[in-house]
Amino acid sequence: MSWTVDAARELYSIRQWGEEYFDINEEGEVVVNLTDESGKATAVSLSKIVRDQDERGRPVPLLLRFRNLLNRRIEALNQAFITAMKGSGYRGVYRGVYPIKVNQQQQVIEEISDFGRKYHYGLECGSKPELLIALAHLNDPEALLICNGYKDIEFIDLALKASQTGMQIVLVVEMPSEVDAILDRAEALGIAPTLGIRFRLSAKSEGHWADSGGDRSTFGLNTAQLIDAIDRLKERDSLKYLKLFHYHQGSQLPNIRAIREACTEAVRVYVNLVNEGAPMGILDLGGGLAIDYDGTHTNYISSCNYGLKEYAADLVEIVQNACDGAGITHPTIVTESGRAVVAHYSVLTFNVLDVTDFRETEAPPAPSPDSHEMLKNLWEIQNRVQTQEPNRLQECFNDALFYRDQIRSLFNNGVVTLRTRAHGEKMYWFTITQIAEQLGELDEIPEDLASLEANLISYYYANFSVFQSLPDHWAIDQLFPIMPLQRLTEEPTNQAILADITCDCDGKVDRFIDVKGAKRHLPIHAQKPGENYLIGAFLVGAYQETLGDLHNLLGDPHVVSVAVEDGEVVYTNEVEGDSVSDVLSYVEYDPKTIERQFRAIAERAVQKEQITAKQRRDLMDSFRATLNGYTYYEND
Ligand SMILES: *Cc1c(COP(=O)(O)O)cnc(C)c1O
Predict the structure, then answer these.
(1) CB-based burial of residue 225 (10 Å sphere; 0-12 exposed, 13-18 middle, 19+ buried)?
(2) Residue pair 255/210 in contact by the 8 Å Cβ criterion
(3) Atom of ligand 1 at shortest distance to CA of 102?
């Protein structure tokens, strides 16, 4: 069967996880569909972006950001709720808030507050730095600024004082002690607070964060604490400040059923709070809206069995029914969707530096008459595989393995030379490769032979750091769609694990998306000599950028924002990645001191006439060039 671009689309599920944003063009390159101001769509090749940037001195690894996709996600989320509410006659509004922690980059927050204004899209903060970010960007009296997290007096005071500027700032009580803490400060400052309460649902969620919901979740009040808080608010004549009810089930909730259950429980509590006499008016359903990273549309951990529209429609329906049943006003519905808003925004691109291919496709030479018996035995197996009936492959495999091991122990005992051992290994791998190629002809693959294919998976050494750029892959087994950016008109004939350049044995990607959930290897092309083979890791806009760390002192990659204006690709907002000198200062070295120390060593070498003064100058030039260079592998 001949290979087509459609076959590539299917192999990498790009139409599933990429939605309408990513695709493959007829030239076999991955494209991003960007719309301009007028709404006209242009497909831009990612490998072209990388080439353009390389010419400008911004080599890979390069993080691409697409403002347009961020805007379209904000729009899609808001429109989903607007449509659902209109459709069912909901008499309240949707006011989304973006949780800053999901991607705190200045560009993201600026874009969200600018573009989000037409939807009165707000911000959620969970710490003092995030509060400052929110205060400085949210210039919209109709948008909400929701304060979650631990709050000290400084935090509370600032939020209260800032609310006098007309901003809608809600202080959410996360711990029982915060009721008095906030009321005390409000009294002292003479400012009426707007209060929310975070509740610990008993409904269990699924997915990686199953424990962040439920009875034992870390944050929020349980039922008894909630009642105590209500009583305390009443005692202090402060129930009138309680406007918002909130819960957060955890992130990346794969199953709509669990989401519905949580919402059902929450709205019941909400109704009770109204009946207790609190003014209420806002129901904040938290985050958790998932991304279909693997494109399977299932309740697998890296997927979700629902879409945006279904999510919005289900939540609106549940809230509406419960409120109608209880005869209370439809509240403003808030969600704190982070991942679903920013995941599409960034793509990490990197190149392949080297390949270790375990497959031996060239037949090794025949042993000479005076070669060791074991080599001759291996040679015989090697020839037998090529002429053998497929049903005896298992036997050939066992024999090849046996003779290979014999040669190894002969080597260890000093009987055969390193050359003989190398010759034997080559014959072994050639035989294994031959067997693997014939496996396709078998009706049923014996268990031993199935694992043989796994032994032949190549290592592709990739110019990036998993710890810096895909921390969730390393920490929580999160799958990201990863695929080559070019040559997709050709069938990928290799299977690979991606090893990064951190020299850490955990520094690799060996789980990839698959229609059946996950697979251990990535289908990939054989790299051509001299080719700059590019790979993209997609949907990395949520959580990956600031969770990343400086393992092996590999720093932030270069970043470029890409947009389309009047049908032309424009590069805006380039951010230079960390230099070697930058990362050294992060761990408290002073680059100047380091240089001075090394200069003294070089000077001593001049004194001892080991190098000339001119060589010293040359050496120091190299030292400084490295100091100012990129932390990743550079091609020049
Ligand atoms: C992290 C977090 C969110 C964001 O969750 P997503 O799954 O990314 O939408 C929302 N609310 C709170 C309280 C959070 O801690």
Answers:
(1) middle
(2) no
(3) 8
pLDDT of residue 1: 63
The per-type count for the chain, helices as H runs and strands as E runs, is 22, 23
91-337: which CATH number, 3.40.980.10, 3.20.20.10, 3.20.80.10, 3.20.20.70? 3.20.20.10
For 209-249, the pLDDT digits (tens) are 665 556 656 689 999 999 999 999 999 999 999 999 999 99
What is the reported pLDDT for 545? 81
CB atoms under 10 Å from CB of 17, counted, come to: 26
On whether the CB atoms of residues 169 and 145 are closer than 8 A, the answer is yes
Nearest atom in ligand 1 to the alpha carbon of residue 337 is: 9
| Domain covering 373-453: architecture | Up-down Bundle (1.20)
pLDDT in tens, 304-359: 999 999 999 999 999 999 999 999 999 999 999 999 999 999 999 999 999 999 88
Positions of the chain with pLDDT lower than 50, given as ranges? none
Cis peptide before 61 (omega within 30 of 0): yes
Please state, in angstroms and as integers, the Cα–Cα distance from residue 298 to each residue in 73, 185, 310, 515, 540, following that order: 21, 48, 14, 10, 20
212: Cβ below 6 Å to ligand 1?
A: no
**Dist CA 364 CA 419 (whole Å):** 13
Identify which of 102, 342, 545 to mutate to test ligand 1's pocket (most ligand atoms within 8 A of the CB): 102
Q: Name the residue with tokens 């957060």.
A: 248
What is the C-alpha separation between 496 and 494, in angstroms, rounded? 6
pLDDT tens-digit readout, 46-72: 999 999 999 999 999 999 999 999 999
DSSP H helices, 65-139, are 67-88, 106-115, 128-137
Q: How far is the CA of 538 from the centre of ligand 1 (A)?
A: 20
What residue spans define the domains of the chain? 91-337, 373-453, 581-627
249 lines ligand 1 (CB under 6 A): no
Spatial distance between the Cα atoms of 427 and 394, rounded to a whole number of angstroms: 17
pTM score above 0.85: yes
Contact predicate 482/489, CB 8 Å: no
pLDDT at site 449: 79
**Mutual angle of helices 373-387 and 393-412, in 10-degree steps:** 160
Look at residues 297, 184, 274, 167 and name the one whose alpha carbon lies nearest to residue 236.
Answer: 184
Helix (H, G, I), strand (E, B) or coil at 82: helix
Instruction: Give me the pLDDT at residue 17, please.
Output: 97
Q: What is the position in ligand 1's atom list of the atom closest to the CA of 340?
A: 9
For the range 435-440, what are the long-range contacts, defined as Cβ-Cβ under 8 Å and sequence gap of 24 or more? 435/385, 435/393, 435/396, 435/397, 435/400, 436/359, 438/385, 438/390, 438/393, 439/393
